[in-house]
Amino acid sequence: MYNNGDFARWRRHPWHGMAAHPGDDKGVVTGFIESLPGDTIKYELDKDSGYLMIDRAQRTTAAPPCLYGFIPRTYCAENVAARCAGTEEADGDPLDICVYSERDINRTDIILQAKVLGGIQMIDGGEADDKIIAVLDGDNVWGDIEDLAEMPSIIVERLQHYFSTYKQVPGKNPNINVDVVYGRDQALEVIAAAQADYDHHYGHLHA
């Protein structure tokens, strides 16, 4: 479907065309932003073209509490699922990332550098769907924080509430669990597992 020539001639594909880490520091990752705080339309990367598409208009009033996107060259498959007790599969998408910044960032379809703080182990319909939590690297307010434990607890609480309710509609209760929260070290292990899954399934694109 893809070849290296495509990447060289055209705009880099947000998922395949850039590295997960912008440099040698494994605690800083590249984030591609799909959605903004307050969005009631769910935007998602079209995996073939690399452009953002409208996945769906949310049926409820749920809206992400922060910047939301994914880490390039990651994929949630067998290695990610193996880290999540009670699951045998992952959601088959790039690894999601939630990014906080003191300043408003009011556009999507951008890349940024984010410092990893931790994550939420989300299980959606029996599939592992981890959410990495990070802050904008060098942020004037949040930039000195090193671990999720240093963030106000309400930050994690709001994320848990959003991800546990954003698929709810009257009469239906989605099978979602977001009880497990982890810090920086485990988040880096999840990212490494998602990179290993990407290399296994899509490494041929970069041969």
Automatic annotation (TrEMBL):
Q: Which GO terms describe its molecular function?
A: inorganic diphosphate phosphatase activity
Q: What are the alphabetically sorted keywords of the record?
A: Hydrolase, Magnesium, Metal-binding
Q: What is its EC number?
A: 3.6.1.1
Name of protein: inorganic diphosphatase
* NCBIfam families, sorted: PRK00642.1
Q: Which cofactor does it need?
A: Mg(2+)
Principal EC category: hydrolase
Any Pfam family: Pyrophosphatase
- Its domain of life reads Bacteria
Give the InterPro entries listed for this entry: Pyrophosphatase, Pyrophosphatase_sf
Which Gene3D superfamilies does the record associate with it? Inorganic pyrophosphatase
Protein's organism: Candidatus Paraluminiphilus aquimaris
